[in-house]
């Protein structure tokens, strides 16, 4: 485990993300598109943030910058004490590898590659030894409740299970933050709640989670809501009473165990 | 990312598309096998040509007397009367690069056998003449040193002469008359055919040079001395040794010209070797075209693979792969393809060559060089044709790659 141990450090109020007046403009032919206009946000460790907004509101651009996949045109972004706004492509890759975990809407697993190999993927680009790698991958898969299916291939897993593999992959490098981009977008409602349950469990262990969603139901599981509109933050407030996935799940009628995708 | 990891994931990626990987490799396999087989065939041809040339007697030197110069009037080559039997004895004794030697003299004339006659050349030779010229006796015998010492009235017929004088019977044991000198026919030479200028080499009679000298021409000097060097590469050495010896024996002052000429057939050998070398290069270049096509096949497949796996590249980048990692991964994949193709191609080329030699009875030679060459060539092709697709993959924008459908 590196840095702040998520398990023990729950609730420590460390400043993880400091975004200061960032803007992003795209040049589309002769038209300048302002995807983000002067956005400032701070996120502390242990938070569970939902980012909401209509499509075109700038939330995806914001998420890409947050995930070091894209650079802001203006402004500063300090991630866990490192100013990442001026870093090169390769340095950003290193940050993504060590400090960030991604969960995508479409799962984005490597096909014809077993669950454990998918989870090991980030470790291949680090300095982990072979033995260590396997151990950590198995532990991450256990955390999401897939310890029994580590050698299954994505096409042998349900949508919910695939997303759990993706979550395990995001966790395997003990990141500071897990970024989830519409993680329930391809899942049915019951599986969505299950996945949110996993996020809540992880959050309780101290892992910071930032989630992009356009579904208010899903956002209700988060502790803080940031709403984007026209490239600006429209509102940023705490959710006084987040839903608890375990309780919601208990109320839902049990139809089938899993929905095969 | 460690090289071992990259290698493993490259193998995995190639395994996922077994058929496609195999077909891509097939281009390289065929290319490398063709290069190896063509080089083997070319070099085999070169070897057998060299062997044939040396069997023609390319290590042969001929010493002619120089031209006579009387009061400013110069005779043609061979007109001088400088070569003697003593020269022969000296050369044989004092030139270590000389293996065999045959004094030569010549007479022309009408030859009569029974009621048939024929005009031909009578070549006076030593007893080693046949061995120097790599010639043989079809039937009968050749004359011996004893015959030469005694200037015996014996001779050996070329095939043309034999069939002209003895169309029905065997000439061996018969007597022919050369310029009214009766000579016993000891044997008949094997057929030699035409020489490079179209002259019939079988229209000849061989006789001891002493016989020709004392009984036919009464010309006291030698027309030529036929010499074989101990090996083809020793020809220049032998030539130099003979030159030095004869200049000394003939008392030629340091800056005066030789009173003899030495000729060899090395030029012929060089020309023939050069021809087969060109043949080898030609064959190999044709074969390398197929290797090039194989390389383009690799590039093609790698480009398809990059496009097809854009999302995978995006995923890898999002979890922390640097451009360099992606570049190396695809480059290694191309290299693995070309190396596996290259190795299989070498095996196929070597076994194909030996199949050619045993089925078509064509000599093939596989050199270490040709294997190294084609192996290196396939590595170079992997890097060269793999680089562009790999770079294309490495330069992808992670966001676009992740969204690629």
Features of the shown structure:
heterodimer; A: 261 residues; alpha/beta; Rossmann fold; six-stranded mixed beta sheet; four-stranded antiparallel beta sheet; 8 helices; 32% helix; 26% strand; globular; B: 405 residues; alpha+beta; six-stranded mixed beta barrel; two-stranded antiparallel sheet; 13 helices; 12 strands; elongated
Mind explaining what this structure looks like?
The complex is a heterodimer of chains A (261) and B (405). With 261 residues, chain A is α/β, with parallel strands linked by helices. Chain A has a domain at 46-59 and 99-251: Rossmann fold. Chain A has helices at residues 59-66, 89-99, 115-124, 130-143, 159-171, 189-204, 216-219, 245-251; strands at residues 15-28, 31-44, 48-53, 74-79, 82-83, 100-103, 177-181, 208-212, 224-229, 232-238. In chain A, the strands form 2 sheets. Chain A has a 6-stranded mixed sheet, sandwiched between helices. In chain A, strand 1 and strand 2 form a beta hairpin. In chain A, helix 4 (130-143) packs across helix 5 (159-171) and helix 5 runs parallel beside helix 6 (189-204). The radius of gyration of chain A is 18 Å and the shape is globular. By secondary structure, chain B is an alpha+beta fold. Chain B has 2 domains: 3-52 and 271-403, no CATH class; 69-264, no CATH class. Helix content of chain B is 56%, strand content 18%. Chain B contains 13 helices and 12 strands. In chain B, the strands form 2 sheets. Chain B has a 6-stranded mixed β-barrel with strand order 4-5-10-7-9-8. Chain B has a two-stranded antiparallel sheet with strand order 2-3. In chain B, helix 1 packs across helix 11, helix 2 packs across helix 11 and helix 2 (18-55) packs antiparallel against helix 12 (368-394). Chain B is elongated, with a radius of gyration of 35 Å. The two termini of chain B are 27 Å apart. Classes of the chains: A alpha/beta (261), B alpha+beta (405). Chain A binds chain B through residues 64, 67, 69-70, 89-90, 93-94, 96-98, 102, 104, 108-110, 112-113, 121-122, 124-126, 169, 173, and chain B through 1-2, 5, 9, 12, 16, 311-312, 314-325, 398-399, 402.
């Amino acid at each position: 485990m590196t840095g702040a141990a998520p398990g023990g450090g729950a609730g420590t109020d460390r400043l993880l993300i400091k975004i200061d007046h960032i803007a992003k403009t795209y040049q589309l032919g002769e038209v300048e598109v302002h995807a983000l206009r002067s956005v400032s946000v701070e996120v502390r460790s242990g938070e569970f943030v939902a980012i909401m907004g209509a499509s075109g509101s700038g939330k995806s651009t914001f998420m890409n910058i947050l995930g070091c996949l894209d650079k802001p045109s203006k402004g500063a972004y300090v991630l866990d004490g490192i100013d990442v706004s001026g870093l090169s492509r390769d340095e950003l890759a290193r940050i993504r590898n060590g400090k960030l975990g991604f969960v995508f809407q479409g799962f984005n697993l490597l096909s014809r590659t077993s669950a454990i190999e998918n989870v090991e993927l980030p470790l291949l680009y680090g300095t982990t030894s072979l033995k260590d790698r396997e151990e950590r991958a198995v532990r991450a898969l256990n955390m999401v409740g897939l310890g029994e299916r580590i050698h299954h291939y994505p096409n042998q897993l349900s949508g919910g299970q695939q997303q759990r593999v993706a979550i395990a992959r995001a966790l395997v490098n003990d990141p500071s933050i897990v970024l989830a981009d519409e993680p329930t977008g391809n899942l049915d409602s019951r599986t969505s709640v299950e996945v949110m349950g996993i996020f809540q469990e992880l959050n309780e262990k101290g892992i910071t989670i930032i989630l992009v969603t356009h579904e208010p139901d899903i956002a209700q599981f988060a502790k803080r809501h940031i709403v984007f509109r026209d490239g600006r933050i429209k509102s940023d407030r705490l959710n006084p009473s987040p839903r608890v996935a375990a309780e919601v799940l208990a109320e839902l009628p049990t139809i089938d165990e899993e929905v095969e995708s | 990312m460690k090289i071992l990891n990259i290698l493993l994931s490259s193998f995995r990626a190639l395994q996922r598309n077994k058929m496609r990987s195999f077909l891509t490799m097939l281009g390289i396999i065929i290319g490398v096998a063709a290069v190896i087989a063509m080089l083997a065939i070319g070099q085999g041809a070169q070897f057998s040509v060299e062997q044939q040339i040396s069997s023609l007697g390319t290590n042969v030197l001929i010493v002619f007397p120089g031209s006579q110069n009387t009061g400013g009037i110069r005779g043609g080559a061979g007109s001088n009367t400088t070569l003697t039997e003593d020269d022969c004895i000296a050369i044989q004794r004092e030139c270590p690069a000389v293996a065999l030697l045959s004094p030569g003299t010549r007479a022309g004339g009408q030859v009569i056998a029974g009621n048939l006659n024929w005009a031909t050349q009578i070549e006076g030779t030593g007893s080693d003449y046949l061995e120097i010229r790599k010639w043989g006796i079809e039937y009968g015998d050749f004359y011996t040193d004893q015959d030469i010492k005694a200037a015996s009235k014996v001779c050996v017929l070329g095939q043309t002469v034999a069939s002209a004088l003895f169309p029905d019977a065997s000439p061996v044991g018969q007597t022919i008359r050369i310029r009214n000198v009766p000579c016993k026919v000891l044997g008949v030479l094997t057929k030699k055919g035409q020489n490079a200028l179209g002259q019939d080499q079988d229209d000849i009679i061989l006789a001891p040079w002493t016989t020709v000298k004392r009984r036919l021409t009464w010309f006291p000097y030698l027309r030529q001395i036929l010499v074989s060097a101990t090996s083809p590469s020793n020809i220049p050495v032998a030539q130099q040794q003979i030159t030095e010896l004869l200049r000394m024996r003939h008392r030629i002052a340091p800056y005066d010209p030789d009173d003899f000429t030495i000729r060899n057939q090395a030029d012929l050998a060089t020309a023939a070797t050069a021809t087969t070398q060109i043949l080898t290069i030609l064959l190999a270049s044709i074969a390398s075209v197929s290797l090039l096509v194989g390389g383009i096949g690799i590039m093609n497949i790698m480009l398809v693979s990059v496009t097809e796996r854009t999302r995978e590249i995006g995923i890898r980048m999002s979890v922390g792969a640097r451009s360099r990692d992606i570049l190396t991964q695809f480059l290694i994949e191309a290299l693995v393809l070309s190396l596996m193709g290259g190795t299989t191609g070498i095996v196929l080329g070597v076994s194909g060559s030996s199949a050619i030699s045993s089925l078509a009875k064509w000599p093939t030679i596989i050199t270490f060089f040709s294997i190294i060459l084609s192996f290196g060539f396939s590595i170079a092709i992997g890097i060269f044709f793999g680089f562009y697709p790999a770079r294309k993959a490495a330069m992808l924008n992670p966001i676009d790659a992740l969204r690629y459908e």
